[in-house]
Amino acid sequence: MKHQIGDIIGDRFRITEKLGEGNVTTTFAAIDEAQDQTVAIKSLSFSDVKDWKTLELFEREAKTLKQLDHPQIPNYVDYLQIDTPNGDRELCIVQELAEGKSLHQLKCEGWQPSEAEVKSIAEEVLNVLSYIHNLKPPIIHRDIKPHNIIRQKNGKIVLVDFDAIQDRLLGGTTIVGTYGYMAPEQYQGRAQPTSDLYGLGATVLYLLTGKDTAQFFQEKSKIDVSSEISLSPTFANWLEGMLEPAIKNRFNNAQDALEAMQASYEVARPFNSDITLKRTKNSLDIVIPPTGITLLNLMKIGMVILISFVSFPFVVKAILIAIDGAVILALLILFFPGLFFLNGIHFVAQRINWHFRKIILSFNHNNFILQEEWRILGFKYTKYQEGKTSNLKYIKNTEEYYFNYNNNIIKNNSLMLNNGMQVFYLATCRSYLERKWLKEQINDFISNIN
Q: What GO molecular function annotations does the UniProt record carry, in alphabetical order (predicted)?
């Protein structure tokens, strides 16, 4: 039955606009004259149905919508069965109208969302998915895509079009979804709650690039997000987790995916590194364990100690001569042996500082705390420094040069954290990749705050 603008459906709903048309359904905007509210009516005529599976899905959608109660899912209003004069029957699902534009429509109009905007949208959709996946039995949407996510004028995100939903207990092997947004298992008719996560990941990819997953070169069907888009490392890792082709490699559920954005999670570190980094939306915690003394460094320290002890008798003799009153002669004797001795002490102390120091660095929106800890031969010494996170200017790789005991120049690679008044040195004697990774993570966190 073809409705026109102004028609009354069910003696209550006056059609005001045709919103869209699918393969067998038509959606209208209407006024609920009983409640004085705007609604959306999805209509299905028996005469347009080619198989009973279509009717089953439509009735399942109505049944499911009736039990849903979430602020980001349009409210169920009514379900109508109308017998027409020509002997046809029409089914209508009536819902609250989600006013706004779909994410697909916004992209087509030139919208270029920032990473922060996309994260916010993903978080809101994950909240909805967590709700429907935790129902008894769980509900799988099966068609998460930009067309089915509405952004309202106030920025609120609404999930619509539940015509592809699957009741997990009823199961089913029907292939339902949209090419470019369907998880691999959906092509086999085996949708899981994590299939919706893949659809959301594909939606996020589209928002950032304007392309769906089918338009990306995929080796073994896995998309290398980092090589395709310039994103913060943590968000790129999260998106790759959403787009994992194998179910077992994806996030376990929507709540896990949500917590990966909002709560603590460990960021992948360079291979074989023992540095740990945990980052949340509001905090960053880094632990840099002591490297310990390698055999080569131990040999260097032994050599320095040996040379220092060779010069030690000259230092003692100079002190004795100074006691006898020959101060100038004592200074002349002490100069070179004393220089060797002091440089040796400095070298050993420096190596102990570098290799036995544990650093615990914690940032939040307001403050940062740097804790340095040394444990040597059962003795422990701890030093605390703190400051305002907003005062941090940058962190960069730096090379400092020192003269060792025989006046050769040696180089110390570190990370230098500057807060405008103090300089803090981190990750000394760590590899270039480790320093580069830490620098990127800290700078990204600081820039998001500032």
A: ATP binding; protein serine/threonine kinase activity
In whole angstroms, what separates CA 429 from the centre of its chain? 29
For 152, other C-beta atoms within 10 Å of its C-beta total: 13
Q: Long-range contacts of range 246-250, CB-CB < 8 Å, 24 or more positions apart? A: 246/184, 247/183, 247/185, 247/192, 247/194, 250/194, 250/197, 250/198
DSSP class per residue in 412-431: EEEEEEE-SS-EEEESTT--
The CATH code of the domain that includes 74 is 3.30.200.20
Question: Residue 231's closest CA among 219, 243, 240, 218?
Answer: 240
Q: Position 112: which residue type?
A: Q
Choose one of 49, 70, 96: the last residue of a domain. 96
With CA atoms as reference, report the closest residue to 201 among 160, 261, 278: 261
Q: What is the pLDDT of residues 314-369, one digit of tens each?
A: 667 667 776 777 767 666 666 666 666 677 677 777 677 777 888 898 988 888 88
Closest CA to 224 of 240, 213, 238: 240
Active site residue 143: yes
- CA 11, CA 316: separation in Å to the nearest integer? 111
pTM listed for this prediction: 0.58
What is the extent of the structural domain holding 69? 8-96
Q: What angle do CA 150, 153, 159 make, to 5 degrees?
A: 20
The residue from 78, 143, 161, 196 that is catalytic is 143
Provide the sign of the torsion angle of the four alpha carbons 179, 183, 186, 191, taken in this order.
negative
Instruction: Looking at the structure, tell me whether residues 119 and 53 fall in a common domain.
Output: no
d(CA 243, CA 199): 8
137: cis peptide before it, omega within 30°? yes
Is 88 domain-assigned? yes
Interhelix angle 233-242/254-262, rounded to 10 degrees, is: 180
Judged on CB neighbours under 10 Å (0-12, 13-18, 19+), 224 is middle
Nearest in space to 247 (alpha carbons), one of 205, 206, 188, 203: 188
Nearest residue to 134 (alpha-carbon basis) of 168, 85, 105: 168
User: Which residue among 96, 113, 142 closes a domain?
Assistant: 96
Is residue 2 assigned to a domain? no
CA-closest candidate to residue 305, choices 368, 347, 351:
347
Residue type, 47: S
CATH classification at residue 110: 1.10.510.10
**Quick check: is 3 in a domain?**
no
Tens of pLDDT, residues 387-440: 888 777 656 655 443 333 333 333 445 666 766 666 677 767 777 778 778 887
